Write the structure tokens for this entry.
Amino acid sequence: MQDIESVAQLTSWLVTGRILFLLIHLLGVALFSYIVAQRMVPFIRGERDFRFDQPWVRMGRVLKYWLGQWKQPRYRAAGIFHIFIFAGFLVLAIRAFSVLIVGVSENFIMPGLSGRAGYIYDIITDYAATIVFLCMVIAVVRRLVFKPARYAVPAGYGKSHTADAIFLLSLIALLMLADSLFAAVKAAAQSPQGQPVEVLAAFSLPWMFRHVLVSTPLSTLGRLCFGTYLVHELTFYFLLCYRPFGIQFHVETSVFNIYFAKLDREILKPVRWGVSDEHLDEVKSFGVKTFEDFTWKHMLDFYSCADCGRCSDNCPANAVGRPLSPRFITIKARDYSFEHYPVFGRVNKGTALVGSVYSQDEIWSCTTCGACEEECPLLVEYIDKIVDLRRGMVDEGNVPQCLQKPLKALENRGNPYGKVEKKRPDWASAKEFQQTCRVRTIDHSNGTGTLYFVDSITSYDDRMQSIGRATAKILNHVGENFGILGAAERDSGHEVRRFGEETLFMALRDHNVEAIKASGVRRIVTADPHAYNALKHDYKDVPPVEHISQVIAREVKAGKIKFNPVENTNNVYTYHDPCYLGRHNQIYDDPRDVLDAIPGLKRVEMRRSRDRSFCCGGGGLMLFYEPKEDQRMGVKRVQMAAEAGANVIVTACPFCMVNIEDAIKVAGLEGKMTAIDLAELVDRQIAREYPDAIEEQAAQPKECVMSSINSPK
Amino acid sequence: MEILVCVRRVPDTSENEIALNSAGNDIERDELVYSINEPDNYAVEEALQIVAKVGGNVMVATVGGEEDEEVLRREMAMGANHGVLIIDEAFSGSDGRGIATILKAFVQKGHYDLILTGVQAEDGGAQIGGMLAALLDYPFASLVNSIEVLDSQKLKVSREIEGGNKELNEIDLPCVLSIQTGINEPRYVGMRGIRQVASVPIPTFSAAELGIAVSTIGEAAAKVKHVDYFVPSLGKGAEILHGSREENINKVLELVAAKGGLK
């Protein structure tokens, strides 16, 4: 390598390259370290967050979501480009490091990359740089020409991010060009002197540059070499230090964000990490009111967002024009953080977030469906933040009037409708129903049997009571010894908690836990996914809980449930995944298996299904909330069902039923589209008479009900 | 500004099924849930908003039994600085004038610039505000749906009049106002808030402490007495339409047009 002087030896403006580049290195690294340190200041002021457990599980997730880029291909084209860029960056990281050192120490060779390994590595990096460069060009073209809708910044959310994105993309492209040219110059300089020519990867950028440069005189090559290196250096450090000011910070933060990501997503963040329920009264302030009330991990989320817009693209609230876009929950908080914790300048503490950065309607608009979190490639958390912000609002008394009434009714009566407790089991006393199936109230501990947890809407809502009766008849049919808590049951509190009223939730939970324990039941079944989720994840020390779809699927497999063929074979069914059954609990297949077991039932999938299911509008207290929106979520959902060619929507949640049945009317599809709950459908289709043991039970419905739970009153 | 808000605990109409007792002289009270009288809650919120603007204190007071302490706590959790329970066996059976007499005695024990009541109790007859003002010889404005503090001597208050119009009045302080719902959006009070004020002592006042002559209050002094509670018999006039949605819509249009509602 004595053909041209190495960049370290070259002298320019009276400074040797070695000193110049050493200075640039030191300045660059120092500046970057300073900026990152400043960025971490709010972490110290933020709330605690326990994210240091289970290192191996966390490492596994880093491998899957960071190194494996697991979520990226959910958006096919953009995802694949990102994988290319990410892989290119990883490959180039080592080269970048060794190139940086070459500026100071000309003979440096990365350990392990001498000889043949280095030769192969060079070829790979040549291609990597080329691919990254091409991806940048494509990304710029995409931003400028194709303009994917999800990158747009809606009015009220600030300026367009396009210019910043293109600026950064161009800088990376420039870095790739400088890197390739530097490699090419070195190669070109070697060829005329009869030394063995570095064979560069064919059709890569360095390969092309070398061909252009092959007859350039050595002196020019020398200057070019120095110049390219300087450009490379400056671009590299500029990018490094500029990234923490914008979306590209995720290059550095993503690996940490994924390592520290929440492991048990189903479990809602406690009000305060490290404070038990008993000591919550001592906590002065609940939830997030100011920026510093976020946990350090949530702040890291803000830094890690890559502004890809996938969350908002999948957010049902955003889709129907509610004033909520999860992407801007993050972006606005990040902007706030940058403004109040500037890299250069003094920290200035701001005021309450709600009312300045966020609007109240924005925070109440979320149905906690989880579509945003499901999509985010960087595992940014949203539900916990929304709930924490709501906790803050509840603590301040900022609760819309439309929610105050049901909350107060929940406090007084244990249900949001303000109905009296003793009427809770009335759904089971309809005369016709009692003749086929009698539901008893468990009021005596005997240690056996199953609890059917009905929850408020199924207990009190005239329409949903039919789901309760269908569920009871199914449990009856499979010979389950079951009972209900009756007047002793309270609302599960699932939405109470998700609407930020933690204290009321705890009261409801404690009441139910006590009643369940006193009943002595060994398992719980419910037909309400919200109750299911609450019992499974929000409650502690209660028996195992199953959703009725799981019970049905199991009994179908076991042959205990057999179906009559559907009467009308012209009907086309589609299954709508309730958020709290699907996304939050991964129960996707059981309901579908049940449907597919019904002879003659034609089933189609909607464009959005399974983990991309589209929320119907939200359950629990969301039914009382009066959102600002252009359209109902449910209407969009029934239109999706119509597009799929279905005329029967099957769901497995009473709240979905409310929203979808309303939406069918609003969409003008009455008479063309119907909705039915899975339990109702199963109850309708069950073949009750066939020659085996089940028949006896079916023939004697009054005898079959949980004699073991029957209290000796 | 020192503000007194007179509040009451009533059976919550939205969370109870109100039925008459077998004797027919009262409602069945065994399974009722009680809460703050809704208009009173608006009055407390208004007081808190005034104090937030011009400074001062908010005192909530109720005439009742020990169980009524719960509504005082709720209003204190909202932000009221003090709560007072005016309690005496001699008070029971008081009519509206009796209650106003008791409150008058309490008002005269302190120093208040402004006294607010809800426009009416959900189980009452909108009597107290006016009578209290008369007994105190204070000016009174009823059905108030906005308050603006002009200076330490004067308020500008408005009320809605028939047809949705507003009437603006200036009123001298000290005065009594009865507050209409909708004047503001009362803040939410959860269990946590109530728990936080659970141990704050609530002073009580008896008839003797307030210097009230027992002969002026209570059942004996009441000149208005409940005679009966009854469910009015259903009148004719409600017509229930049984057709399809389209038929019903057309029928409704027809009926409204026939009554001159559509032109």
Remarks:
- The two ends of chain B are 52 Å apart (CA to CA).
- Chain B has one domain: 2-221.
